[in-house]
Amino acid sequence: MGGADKMPAGRLSWLLLGVVLAFGVAASPAQASRNTHYDFVIKETNVTRLCQEKTILAVNGQFPGPTIYARKDDVVIVNVYNQGNKNITLHWHGVDQPRNPWSDGPEYITQCPIQPGANFTYKIIFTEEEGTLWWHAHSDFDRATVHGAIVIHPKRGSVYPYRKPHKEMPIILGEWWNADVEQVLLESQRTGGDVQISDANTINGQPGDFAPCSKNDTFRMLVEHGKTYLLRVINAGLTNEMFFAIAGHRLTVVGTDGRYLKPFTVDYIMISPGQTMNMLLEANHATNGSGDNNRYYMAASPFFTNIGLPVNDKNTTAILEYTDAPPSAGPPDYPVLPVINDTAAAAAYTSQLRSLVTKEHPIDVPMEVDEHMLVTISVNTLPCGANETCMGPGPGNNTRLAASLNNVSFVPPTVDILDAYYYSISGVYEPDFPNKPPFFFNFTAPNPTVEFQLTKRGTKVKVVEYGTVVEVVFQDTAILGAESHPMHLHGFSFYVVGRGFGNFDKDKDPATYNLVDPPYQNTVSVPTGGWAAMRFRAANPGVWFMHCHFDRHTVWGMDTVFIVKNGKTPGAQMMPRPPNMPKC
């Protein structure tokens, strides 16, 4: 389907329906059909934020982009028309895509990018997922504006494992740069220095009441007293984990990453880039000591622990407004949020995530592990190139920032790895990603010696046999400062069986694992100065990217790839390569 085809007229109705449904609710007709088709036209769109107009890439002229609606087990077709000015790909975050890495989306991993003027059709195969996922660009920093929600309802005849909400609402946490994000990325690549911080955090694309020139456009969610609402919260930001709360209201968390959780009620959540959280909100008109206010701020604020690095520490707000209460003269009540570096608050929230585990929603935690991996996560440096002046850390302007897993800083190839694997093209990748770091030291002790900063570049992948049970322990390091990292695996969800602070102890820590009801996620927040252990069964053949979901870390090399070999039966083998894959 390459080439500068125009959109077929018959699909315009789908496109318009997608526009109407951008923030629709559960009763939308689009969810009634299986094999739903969507047309996504990516092109430059002018928007105004923070007092200035700017051109961004957007899908169907919307920022955030349209919501995709599906039911469990649906197959959704998305025709992507790249009418923008640069190469791009799209990824369906958290969709396992069984046997179908061809439609997974990360550029130079499973496909060549869709070039300007070309188009490509993605096939999204939903199986076990139910709840909230999301889609986003998976090229450069394009996902700053090219993203949207995926809502997966239960199959017809099935029900939610909780009371059906009156309405549902995607709440997308994002970031806004006044500068062109492409130029922000290019400048950091040119200098080897850190990425310029964003100018605002956003809720559903808006900075909120306390940002310049923004109050009139603050997102509002209208509610009625006594009704229950389902919030589908997505962290689409590129840089920060976020705390989120609503003044005067507690939130009952019922799902994460397209899977159900044992419900628990909290004053705030902590959500990492890449993650989703489903929460029930009872519109019970609680107040925060200011009488009969009918408006309450939703607010999100960054969680960030690496002191010494610049950070966009601005809060973002939206408004929860009761339509059946008299309007109040004063400002909306404001929620209490943890402070920016409150590691204990983040850990207290995350420790409450536990899978639901019912007859209708069973889990299958692997008890025996075939392959153990300890993967250190580091921000590093590389030597500056000849005749370059770099802005990496340290004296002398002679380093550039990098990042690594097990001290391998991943380099994307110029031919996608999936094609190289499928066609046995040599020289594109090395199949020897290590199961452990090359050297051991006190990973989390502050200020490790400078020689640990240096890393090596390579395109190393991990090859596993079909059906292998893999345990990955992610270990944060204090190289250039300890911080938490949202680690995301494509092609799988995984059971987060353990987590802790300090250095992982292989003799003692497995005794603390939760093998009864661990959360089933696709993105795990590895604690700052700590570790997280996850298990998955490699029963999805293909090529699957694993990376930090902080985008600057992704482009610096905090990535690797799992290649899962074909099994013996036809249902355990990759689908054939579609004939219309984009060309590099």
From TrEMBL:
Coiled coil: none
Cellular compartments annotated: Secreted, Extracellular space, Apoplast
Database matches in PROSITE patterns: MULTICOPPER_OXIDASE1, MULTICOPPER_OXIDASE2
GO molecular function ontology, one term from the record: copper ion binding
Domain of life: Eukaryota
One GO-annotated biological process of the protein: lignin catabolic process
Signal peptide per UniProt: 1-32
Entry GO CC: apoplast
Cofactor binding note: Binds 4 Cu cations per monomer.
Record keywords: Apoplast, Copper, Lignin degradation, Metal-binding, Oxidoreductase, Repeat, Secreted, Signal
Cofactors named for this entry: Cu cation
Domain Plastocyanin-like: 42-156, 168-324, 434-567
Catalytic activity reported: 4 hydroquinone + O2 = 4 benzosemiquinone + 2 H2O
UniProt key word Isomerase: no
EC assignment: 1.10.3.2
InterPro entries per the UniProt record, alphabetical: Cu-oxidase-like_N, Cu-oxidase_2nd, Cu-oxidase_C, Cu-oxidase_fam, Cu_oxidase_CS, Cu_oxidase_Cu_BS, Cupredoxin, CuRO_1_LCC
Cited SUPFAM superfamilies: Cupredoxins (SSF49503)
Listed NCBIfam families: laccase
PANTHER family referenced in this protein's UniProt entry, alphabetically: LACCASE, MULTI-COPPER OXIDASE
Protein role: Lignin degradation and detoxification of lignin-derived products.
Family statement drawn from the similarity comment of this UniProt entry: Belongs to the multicopper oxidase family.
Protein's UniProt name: Laccase
Organism: Miscanthus lutarioriparius
High-level lineage: Eukaryota, Viridiplantae, Streptophyta, Embryophyta, Tracheophyta
